[in-house]
Amino acid sequence: MATVEGIRARLKDSFTEQQADLLAHVVVEAHADYVTRGDFQALTSVVRELAEAQQRTEVRMEELADAQRGLAAAQERTEARMEGLAAAQERTEARMEELAEAQREFTWAMRDTRKQLGGLAQSVGYGLEAYAMERIPRILSRQMPFVEEASGPEQFVSASGVEDDVDVVVRGTLAGRPVVFLCEAKTNITPQEVRDFLPTVDRVRGQVACDDVRVLYFAYRASSEARAAVAAAGGYLALAHTIVVRPAASA
Questions:
Q1: Which residue among 27, 32, 137, 218 is least enclosed by CB atoms within 10 Å?
Q2: Among residues 26, 31, 68, 33, which one has the least CA distance to residue 50?
Q3: What structural domains and CATH numbers belong to the chain?
């Protein structure tokens, strides 16, 4: 007959000492009451299966514990990344604010620069016109029999109310005959500026009270294309000290 000690010895490899002792007593008591040898073998098989199930459960619990630890570590890494992203977001927002402020400062600086350049261009324009008003009559007198009577900017208003400002209008006589030069003054004249002045000349021609009205462009610089445009328009082109383009049939 199986004894408690024998059963306990067989069970302690799969159960704790307390569990093995309890099961051993249960088996012996049950066997003493009514368990046959066959029943005992079946019971032993069941106990063995329970032990194996217990082992599998413990393995599974350990696997679950490992998985839980892995999830916890992953959660910690995720939280660390989220904190890093939040910090990066804060730095990005701060940088964007700095860029926006720099953009605002740049916009104001550009506006101020344009204003200053506009004032400078206006000053240069006025200065060039004043210089042209003094130089053109001298150039004309030196290179043709011209006698100056008046030289300065003038405004004309057509019958339809169109206002035209001419940079310099030089009035005088050429070989004793009245002549008027309508002058456009530019620092660096372009072909387009040559052509843009011609409609003004057409509107003003009838308002100057002179039969001989001529077109003259005064500039510091003029490209070959601009000189060709002046020649095509039948006008004069004067630089600071001389006439470089004149109509072929001019006096």
A1: 32
A2: 26
A3: 126-245 (3.40.1350.10)
